[in-house]
Amino acid sequence: MRGAVIHAPGDVRFEERADPTIEQPTDAVIRMVATCVCGSDLWSYRGDNRIDHPQPIGHEYVGVVEEVGADVRTIRPGQTVVGSFFASDNTCAHCRAGYQTACLHRVGMGGLGAQAERLRVPLADGTLVAASGTPDADLVPSLLAASDVLGTGWFAATAAEVGPGKTVAVVGDGAVGLLGVLAARELGAERVIAMSRHASRQALAREFGATDIVTTRGDEGVAEVKDLTDGLGADSVIEAVGTQQSVMQAIAATRAGGHVGMVGVAHGVAIPGDRLFYSFVHLHGGPAPVRRFLPELIGLIEQRAIDPGRVFDLTLPLSEVAEGYRAMDERRAIKTLLVP
Ligand SMILES: [Zn+2]
C-alpha cells in the first residue's frame, strides 16, 4: 500500500509502505475512507519534534474494517469506524475514569501512520466506535473531525467547565480552537469570545457560534477579554495553541475561580508558579481523551445536529499529502482532508 512518510522537516513523501496486518489478536485493519493533516503534525513538519529516521505519520482516520484479530468481539468487518489518536483498551482504570489517552495499554496511532491507504488499529474493541451503517458521504468530513479536532475541542470545553450561561474565551483559531467554539455553544455557553486575527477563521468561528471576536493577543488580547467581561475575565478559557504566550494569555484571561481547558500540545511552556498561584484559576488538560466523547459526537453528527466537517477547507487526493502539509504550514488552509 501507499502512505505518507516524513523524512525530515518540510519533507513529507507519499510512498510504498508495508501492508498492515493483524499482529495482535486484538487488532483490526481498516481501509481508509478519509484521513487528514493535524496541526500537531506541523510540529514535526516545522522541525520542533526530532525526526531520527523516516517515519509514517498521521493519526486521524475514518475507515472500513477489513479484518479483525481472533480476540476482537464487538468490531466487525464491513463497519465504518472512527478512532482517536491513541488506541486504548477502554477497560483499564484510567479508561473507566474517562482518560483513555492515559490508558495503561495505550498505543500512539501517529507511529502507525494513518495518512495511508490502510491502517492497523490496536485494541480494536476499545479504540474504535462504529457509525450506524454506512454514513452518507457528506458526513465523512464531520466523522473525521470527531477523530481528533472535534473531540479535542469538546474535551477542552469540558475541561474548562463550560456550561449554560457562561462566558467562554477561546485562544487559538486552528481547527481545535474553532471546534472549541462549536463545543462551547453546544454545551450551553451564553457568550463565546473567539481570539483570531484572520478574517476567514473569524467567519467560521461566527458560524460555529462565536458571539465576539478579539483580534489582538498577549496582554492586549487579555485586556480586550476583560473589557468584554466587566473587567473580570472569562469563566472558561480554551487554550488550543500550546505556546508560552498562548498559555499565559489563557490563564490571564480567566476570572478568579474560573477554568482553563489546555489542549494545545505544550512546547517550551513554563508557567511561573507565582503567576499561577495568584491567578486563582483551575487548569485541566492534556492529550484529549477523544474516545470518551466519540459515541456522543458520532450521534450528533449522524443526527446532523452539528457540522464540524466545515473546518476542512482543502480536500486533496492522499497522493498529494505533501501539498496538504504545505498549505497548512503556510496557513493557506485551516485543515486538509485527504482522500485515498
Ligand atoms: Zn485503558
From TrEMBL:
<dbReference type="Pfam" id="PF08240">
    <property type="entry name" value="ADH_N"/>
</dbReference>
<dbReference type="InterPro" id="IPR020843">
    <property type="entry name" value="ER"/>
</dbReference>
<protein>
    <submittedName>
        <fullName>Zinc-dependent alcohol dehydrogenase family protein</fullName>
    </submittedName>
</protein>
<dbReference type="InterPro" id="IPR013149">
    <property type="entry name" value="ADH-like_C"/>
</dbReference>
<dbReference type="InterPro" id="IPR013154">
    <property type="entry name" value="ADH-like_N"/>
</dbReference>
<dbReference type="InterPro" id="IPR002328">
    <property type="entry name" value="ADH_Zn_CS"/>
</dbReference>
<dbReference type="InterPro" id="IPR011032">
    <property type="entry name" value="GroES-like_sf"/>
</dbReference>
<dbReference type="Pfam" id="PF00107">
    <property type="entry name" value="ADH_zinc_N"/>
</dbReference>
<feature type="domain" description="Enoyl reductase (ER)">
    <location>
        <begin position="7"/>
        <end position="338"/>
    </location>
</feature>
<keyword id="KW-0560">Oxidoreductase</keyword>
<comment type="similarity">
    <text>Belongs to the zinc-containing alcohol dehydrogenase family.</text>
</comment>
<keyword id="KW-0862">Zinc</keyword>
<dbReference type="InterPro" id="IPR036291">
    <property type="entry name" value="NAD(P)-bd_dom_sf"/>
</dbReference>
<keyword id="KW-0479">Metal-binding</keyword>
